[in-house]
Design goal:
It is built from 7 helices and 15 strands. With about 300 residues, it is of the alpha/beta class. α1 runs parallel beside α7. The structure holds flavin-adenine dinucleotide.
Length: about 300
Amino acid sequence: MEKIIIVGAGPAGISAALYAARGNMDPLVVDNGIGALEKAEKIENYYGLECLLSGRELYERGLAQARRLGVRILNAQVLGIGGFDTFEVKTTKGSFEAESVILATGGKRSTPSIPGIRELEGRGVSYCAVCDAFFYRGKEVAVLGHSDFALHEAEELVNLASGVTIYTDGMEPEFSREHPIAVNTMKIQAIEGEGRVEGIRLQSDMMMQEEGQEQASFMPTDGVFVALGTAGSSEIARQMGAELTEKGHIKVDEKMESTIPGLFAAGDCTGGLLQVAKAVYEGCQAGISAIQYVRRRGKES
Ligand SMILES: Cc1cc2nc3c(=O)[nH]c(=O)nc-3n(C[C@H](O)[C@H](O)[C@H](O)COP(=O)(O)OP(=O)(O)OC[C@H]3O[C@@H](n4cnc5c(N)ncnc54)[C@H](O)[C@@H]3O)c2cc1C
């Protein structure tokens, strides 16, 4: 079993990993490639930067620094975290058990701009299959997404719902394994319903649309689960039952511990100032707190 798993290798995740490694915890970092730093053309307001660095250069330096201290970095996507007493971190490259987890997955994902989705949030539009699947037992549901995260959410629903379809909204499916779940790749025009979700309107024939004869078909469904791209911090935390703030960030105390013992969070995923300096500080605190948590646990057992 791992002592500490860190999800994310941005400034927060790497900072946590450096402290955890120095604390002899041999941390495992799971990372899915560059995060917010990808868009940062030049960084000049972080301590010690004698010359301008691009966000990508900073990210790569962070990875190299962590590797130099012996930190193991697994290039994979975390799909969800479960478990009781210890944590089971489910990734695209298998599941790993850990005594403690630090979420450092960066900022919140933006809601897709599909008409109807915002208006019907909480009224049939959900962002968490584990949390809400029960309300859809015996009902028809849709999962919005095209990657392993969407597949993971769909698999949470199949045992309860009467039918599950993954809608990719025109994207090519990118599932890393075979599965029996129905997939619809058409573009979505809108999520529709009077007061709650009643169905998905598809742009059924792009050719006809180009010819000016737009046609749409309506797919009745009782619920739409949004699982676009990769699982973000709030999706993972929500699945686990950790409290979020009103703005949807992970709620943490001054030790960066969430409302679940042993689950810590750091960086953009906790909200507030979205800056490298703040992510590095929180990663440092989360790393130290996770070390203390693992040591305390060891003494108690
Ligand atoms: C355009 C732009 C310019 C900026 N300029 C500056 C600046 O000049 N100065 C400054 O201080 N800050 C700047 N920032 C902000 C800064 O980039 C962020 O505050 C900082 O990167 C946050 O660090 P983080 O570790 O919390 O998240 P991120 O850097 O976003 O890292 C998150 C990591 O989590 C990983 N991850 C996410 N989901 C999963 C998953 N499901 N499984 C596995 N891994 C996952 C990602 O792959 C990524 O590596 C800028 C941001 C932007 C967008």
